[in-house]
Specification:
By secondary structure, this protein is α/β, with parallel strands linked by helices. It has a single domain, classed as Vaccinia Virus protein VP39 (Rossmann fold, 3-Layer(aba) Sandwich), CATH 3.40.50. It has helices at residues 5-27, 29-34, 46-67, 87-91, 104-113, 152-165, 194-207, 221-231; strands spanning 75-79, 96-101, 120-124, 138-143, 166-180, 233-241, 248-257. The N and C termini lie far apart (36 Å).
């Protein structure tokens, strides 16, 4: 029974993450990604929304080029792609880009928004691994403001999968908060065990249909480096990152496989 417990917890936590993001995709998908009032569904300027994504990707890839000028631009994966805000920026550089998300609603919106981009495809994944992708199949595995929304147990699992699906010599570029530096709001569910929290959230959301709570999880840099090292990758650069706002210290990591 004890050997099955981690897998059971992964399944429970992943289901909770999936339910949260399916609901956000229905209620307010653009705000869910950037969490600013200007991106509320009824007033979001989508041209500006996606242009900001392209600008951010271009800036981050320039950072990568300053460390690894030999980056191959054949195939990239955007993990936690949402509506494809960053995927479309990658598609301007890479010959083929695959966006992956846990939410069917987000994937549907991404396909609608980018139907005319021929080198960009979107895939839903509801697993705690990326077994749908062969080992060594991407030149770049990219993830921004996504890993922070899954529990630590799943963060480690996904980081190992990032390394697996990256080709030898390929790169990982991802963001993670390291620690909380200012008091954050606690929520009702954080005091309950995961199994109880899932049931309580389900009942509560049926009774009171409010926006879901978006959890943020941290992983210290030394743990990130240890996980990547044990999976076969080395951190090449670690840049300060402000995507989680003033409450968290966050970093953008660049790592190479092999």
């Amino acid at each position: 029974m004890n050997g099955r417990r981690p897998a059971m917890l992964q399944s429970i936590r992943l289901r909770l993450v999936r339910n949260t993001w399916e609901r956000l995709a229905r209620l307010d998908p653009y705000w869910a990604i950037l969490n600013e009032p200007v991106w509320r569904h009824e007033r979001a300027d989508l041209e500006h929304f996606f242009a900001g994504g392209r600008t951010l990707v271009a800036r981050q890839l320039a950072q990568v080029a300053s460390v690894c000028p030999d980056l191959r631009s054949a195939r990239a994966l955007d993990f936690g792609c949402g509506v494809g805000r960053l995927s479309v920026g990658l598609a301007a550089v890479f010959r083929e880009v695959v966006g992956v998300d846990i939410s069917a609603g987000m994937i549907s919106l991404a396909r609608q928004h980018h139907a005319t981009v021929p080198n960009l495809t979107f895939v839903r994944s509801v697993r705690s691994d990326l077994q749908g992708f062969p080992t060594g199949s991407f030149d770049l595995v990219y993830s921004l403001i996504t890993l922070q929304h899954v529990p630590r147990l799943l963060i480690e699992a996904y980081l190992r999968e990032f390394v697996r699906i990256c080709r030898t010599g390929g790169l990982l570029l991802f963001q993670l908060p390291a620690r909380e530096v200012a008091p954050a709001r606690r929520n009702l569910w954080s005091v309950w065990p995961p199994t109880v929290a899932v049931r309580l959230r389900r009942v509560f959301n049926r009774l009171i249909p409010i926006s879901p709570i978006i959890d943020v999880h941290c992983l210290p840099p030394e743990e990130v480096r240890a996980i990547l090292s044990s999976a076969g990758a080395t951190v090449l650069a670690q840049w300060p990152d402000d995507s989680t706002g003033p409450v968290y210290e966050s970093f953008l990591y660049l790592a190479r496989k092999g």
